[in-house]
Amino acid sequence: MDHVEFDREPPRNLTTLVIAFGGWIDAGQAATGALRHLVRDLSATRLAWINPEQFFVFTQERPEVRLRADGERDIHWPRSEFFACQPGNGHDGLLLFSGGEPHQRWRTYTTAFLDVAERCGVRRIVSLGALLAGAPHTRPIRVTGRSSDPAWRSVLEAWGIYRRPTYEGPTGISTIVLDAAERRGISHLGLMGQAPHYLQNNENPAAIQALLTYVARLLHLSPDMSHFDEAIKEFRTQCDREVARNRATREHIQQLEQQYDATAGEEQQALPGGELDSEKLMQDLQDFLRGQSGGGEKTGGQGRD
């Protein structure tokens, strides 16, 4: 397979793929952070990687030199990696992907990416992302969802987070991948978090937790969430300390808080739970996907990020 190296023969029952690209739609490193936690907590092992040589400009994203315990050095190139998780109980497995947004040859990259997915038996993709928004760090992270498939959309609507895509303009690699996936008959759903715009370069544990909570609920996973409360508390304390130093920043955040609170009732952003019968919704989704397994064309299109 061009541009892809497999660590071992891939299984054919990894029917769900969760993806997170770093870069433009990874505000607060929320998407890649959530994906990293899934890989660790599910004990997923690397299955394949996309060779970066044709897709990355190394003067823009340079390889890194790191020291080993024995004092020798290793070179780490930009990574685009697939990880496999198989439950071992006869059920379908999970394919996970994390990688930086490539700099060039997006069509070729997308073809290589989806060839891996199809070889592993992927029938649906869940895309994670996060954008910078006018959101205060003192409030819960808002997450919205989108999907062109009715069964997927019913889940998002039940949680009160479905938003019809309205954006027009420059887009990211995940949109290109999902658009091409739909043309191959692969269903997809996107979850997008909203991270504070004034914390562009900080890893945001609250944003990571929000995305991880939704994808775990959606796919009936049980990642370890125990450390997030303390990490979020420490993160907000550090942010409060920095904000206190500047009056203009404090006033700006107060305005963001007022705007957030004014729309809280309209947004209905409670995390999934309560009396929602998500298992029934997911069963409806699986029934829908089985009805689409003939590979025919599907109506509708995916909105852009």
According to CATH, the fold-level topology is: Rossmann fold
CATH class category label: Alpha Beta
Looking at the overall shape, the CATH architecture is: 3-Layer(aba) Sandwich
Task: Tell me the domain tally.
Answer: 1
Strand content: 15-25%
H/E topology pattern? EEHEEEEEHEEHHEHHHH
Distance between the termini: 29 Å
Helix content: 25-40%
Main pleated sheet = 8 strands, mixed
| DSSP helical segment count | 8
Class inferred from helices and paired strands = alpha/beta
Uncertain residue segments: 268-305
Output the strand order for the largest sheet: 1-3-6-7-2-8-10-9
Q: What sort of overall outline do the alpha carbons produce when their principal axes are compared?
A: globular
C-alpha-based Rg, rounded: 20 Å
CATH superfamily: PAC-like subunit
Average pLDDT = 86
How many strands appear in the DSSP assignment? 10
Structure, explained:
- The chain has a single domain (4-290), classed as Rossmann fold.
- Helix content is 37%, strand content 20%.
- The protein has helices at 30-41, 106-119, 150-159, 173-183, 205-219, 228-243, 247-267, 278-291, and strands spanning 4-6, 16-22, 45-50, 64-67, 73-76, 80-85, 94-100, 124-133, 142-146, 187-196.
- The strands form two sheets. An eight-stranded mixed β-sheet has the order 1-3-6-7-2-8-10-9, with helices on both faces. Strands 4-5 form a two-stranded antiparallel sheet.
- A hairpin with an 8-residue loop joins strand 6 and strand 7.
- Helix 1 crosses helix 5 (205-219).
- 36% of the residues are buried.
